[in-house]
Amino acid sequence: MLAALSVVALTASALWLAPARRASAQRAGVDTYAITNARVVTVSGPVIERGTVVVREGLIAAVGERVAAPPDARTIDGTGLTIYPGLIDASTTLGIPRPTPTPGATPGGGGGFAGLFGQSAPSAVSPNSTQLPGLQPEISAADLVRPGGNEIEAARNAGITAAQTAPRGNIFLGQSAFINLAGDTPQQMIVRSPVALYVGTTPIGGGQYPGSLMGVFSSVRQLLLDAQRYREANAVYERSPRGLRRPEQDKSLAALLPVLSRQMPVVMQADSERQIARALELAREFNFQLVIAGGTEAHKVAERLKAANVPVLLSLNFPRRTAAASPDSDPEPLRILRDRIEAPKTAGRLAAAGVRFAFQSGGMTQMNDFLANAARAVEGGLSPMDAVRALTIRPAEILGVAQQLGTIEVGKIANLTVTRGDLFAKDRRITHVFIDGRPVELRPAATATGGATGASGNWTLNVNLPGSGEQSEFTVTLNLQQQGENLTGSLQGPLGSGQIGSGSVTGDDIRFNVPVTLPGPATQTTDAIFTGTITGNQMRGSVQIVGRGPGTFTGTRPAPPAEGGRPPGAGGGGRTRPAATPTPTPTPPGGGTPPDGASNP
Amino acid sequence: MKRLFTHLISFALLCGLGGGATFGQARGGETLIRNATILTITRGRLENADLLVRNGKIAAIGPNLRAGTNARVIDATGKFILPGIIDAHSHSMMDGSVNECTQSVTSMTRVQDILNPTAINLYRELAGGVTSLLLLHGSCNAIGGQSSTVKIKYGRPVEEFIFPGAPPGIKFALGENPKRTNFNVPGLQRRYPATRMGVEEVIREAFTRARDYRAAWADYREQSRTNKNLIPPRRDITLEPLVEILEGKRYVHSHCYRADEILMLINLADEFGFKVRTFQHVLEGYKVATEIARHGAGASTFADFWGYKIEAYDAIPYNAAIMTRKGVVVSINSDSDERARRLNIDAAKMMKYGGLSEEEALKLITWNPAWQLGIQERVGSIEVGKDADFAIWNAHPLSVYARVDMTFIDGDVFFDREADLARRPQLEQERKTLEQAEANRPPARGEGATPPRPPSAIRRAYTHDDDVHYEEDNQR
């Protein structure tokens, strides 16, 4: 029986692998691994309480209770370990470089205010495009993605083996790719490309249309209408070119054609009920296949999502409390207090309502939160098996790679996440991660991602506004929270109290708008645009207040906290801090703990 | 801890999750309001009258009405019923910037795309007896974005807010805002136009293009009858709303101040053959009231608010009364989330300044704005067959002591003062419980911790909108 099974398995794998042999032969070293005596959560079938998974030349060669480790395999004793299909992060910007800020150089011209506030275009740029950067659907993540880097490493340390990655930018961000988080070249990483078109709602700004959310929707609508006409014009012309002026070739519009024919889905970032409703409305208007990314309030629109068969890439970056910007600021609205409690329950509610969903990291800066928050979703009502699916086969299905990934089945790509303890247990540790059949080294050091330095924290700013009457120096408190590239927060002090309207982080560069109230006889509230650079715990830059001359600011913050999980005081480095109260934030389980065993067997 | 968490979950579920969902839930059915003083607006004042609401409409008005056994009966002895107040200039329901400022013509933008049905100010406006709003794009551009007319169905999904059948509208703006007088940064290039002459030319050029656009499509439709091998013209969502204006299908609501620019737009509208539905702000309207009336436009103005910039200096509080006397359909608007809650007081001021009658004053915030929005067949007065949009006031709404007890839209209750008061201890308790939850406790150290108070950070008193947002659209 045992022999028979192995033979079947090996025959299958041999057949499957034949064409790939030559390519993989160029790689040096061992290509066969077996993890024995482990609990195997196959996802495709029942859990194998004590079994073996064999990996050969990048693929899963055998799995089962009675599978023997091949003699040429590196064998890992999996006693006490659980093997899951490699975890997938359904929406990221992993491996996509941040465009270098080029002050004032907004291509396209025509806008007198281009680069007005030294703003950098956060979007990649496509040559010879008819559209401005930020409105170029032809941008492709596969052309931009780079292997390696801290962020990819941090994701792998959190057990993530593969991800959808999308270009960064404003409105038409471009086309995403599905990548494995290992490989020496972009080509080795890519599993599928293109996957989906990403549409964002960040205005281009700097004087360029669109400069508002309203304008974002108008520009999306106009470009999709133009694409419809482009399709029609080319069809008419191809039918009979004589007597017709040829339609101009336009790669931006051409890139939208698969969207109009429903061959390529559109991923739209939408968290609140109304944002999701807007996305659904746009999808209905242009009959495209929609995928919601974010989805914090998706359960409130569950019926509509189900009816339209719209899946959700649900963010695990749950809202967290950061302290009020000032000790005597207004109490938080009840709605916000509720939202923090409700966010972990969305997944369970979507599952109950029958809406397809997969988990994504949502731009979190502490990757330890990825599994910790999936565990909170389980606590909030999601069944553990559904949670595993939302990290494996569901994203694979939604992103069109279910034939290759998402379960532990013979012939699939050998992406595996191995843990000691259950995936959602607080004491769980990631022991091994296999990507494309090779173990990756797990290092506890690389954890934080996001900007090179996060912008979050409580900053004390000195704002200098020359020529503004009796007072020109103001000391204000700025509370910043960075989530991915988004910046939220508030400003308090002698310039009034205001919430950040729109804010973004690009590398070390930050930019945000906040209403300020200038003191003086004619009290006036107006928008101030802060543009600056963060270096460590210092920030400096310029401030532009509508109707006034430019000013400058400098800022400092208390040093950020030690990396997750370190005991209080361990990384203090001589900073003065308020007395620590016991465990103020939920400490991510397993955070910063070194993986056990040798990671390179 | 875990037990507390579970406890909390059940508590939150008990409380209901939607912010204002509590009052908006009951739908349809019959309501009989007994023994009220009804200010009908169009049929005078009815004492000791009953009002019967059925299926969202006003079913009957009169003494001693009878309702079905399941009807909700409200005793309104000593109370007043006023049609729902209509605010003809609001930005209360808009997410993010109310302005697309990058171009001088932004008719492609739509307020409808950025509606926020959870904005708390909507609830506060219900508490001021307001039931409908004209949501306008800002005044950054000569031709701004497309407006939305909504009923404040707070607690309901956004699509239920849209006023069914209300004519589409668009914002225009004249004067200092579109020419960016007060918004320029020294050393930076200005956006065209920079003068009132330029504003006029921007509008003229846009309508010239719209005429050409309409002609191109007409041409294409004509030719495509015989020639199937034609490529259609490009659809241009900037010009399509302007074609609708030319065809009389879209109302123009134009921000303006000075008499000369008002006359300019009237002449320009005559040149292209369209009508201006309302002049907004229109602080010098009293100087050209005859011309406004002759054009057939309405005027939507402030009661007594001016002097906040040069073009707003030549204003008088008698503006609304003078324009009314000259035959203009006048409304008093808020253009402010805060002011919108007490439009009844602004209407009352017009009896002091200019001697309008009680009914004329009330019309400024009910029937007249309804006409300006083209929804006067549905709302704006208490008449049988009209939408049951009204509020019950505890005193005459023109009294400073008056407050709203209940606000109805389409026969459903969206504000109920008693229910609101009764719910407060419960909400307070919920807050206490929520604040104890782990996710809601701030970190005491590190990222996000409470900072030491900077020595100079003196907290300023909360500034109300009307002190600073004379036109919200300017500011955001």
Write structural notes for this entry.
The complex is a heterodimer of chains A (601) and B (476). Chain A is an alpha+beta fold. The longest helix of chain A has 27 residues. Chain A starts with a helix and ends in a 45-residue tail after the last strand. The N terminus and C terminus of chain A are likely disordered. Chain B is α/β, with parallel strands linked by helices and 476 residues long. Helix content of chain B is 29%, strand content 20%. Chain B is built from 13 helices and 16 strands. In chain B, the strands form two sheets. In chain B, strands 1, 2, 3, 4, 5, 14, 15 and 16 form an eight-stranded mixed β-sheet that branches. In chain B, strand 15 and strand 16 form a beta hairpin. At the A-B interface, helix 6, helix 8, helix 10, strand 19 and strand 20 of A face helix 1 and helix 11 of B.
Oligomer: heterodimer
Overall mean pLDDT of chain A: 82
pLDDT < 50 stretches of chain A: 1-26, 102-121, 445-453, 561-601
Give the largest interface pair and sizes.
Answer: A-B, 104 and 84 residues
Low-confidence stretches of chain B: 1-22, 453-476
For the CA atoms, what is the radius of gyration of chain A? Answer: 26 Å
Helix fraction of chain B by DSSP (H/I, runs of at least 4): 25-40%
Distance between the termini of chain A: 30 Å
Q: In angstroms, what separates the terminal alpha carbons of chain B?
A: 44 Å
**Biggest pleated sheet of chain B:** 8 strands, mixed
Task: Summarize the structure in short.
The complex is a heterodimer of chains A (601) and B (476). Chain A is of the alpha+beta class and 601 residues long. A nine-stranded antiparallel sheet of chain A has the order 22-21-20-19-27-26-25-24-23, with no helix packed on it. In chain A, strands 1, 2, 3, 4, 5, 16, 17 and 18 form an eight-stranded mixed sheet that branches. Chain A has a six-stranded mixed sheet with strand order 8-11-12-13-14-15.
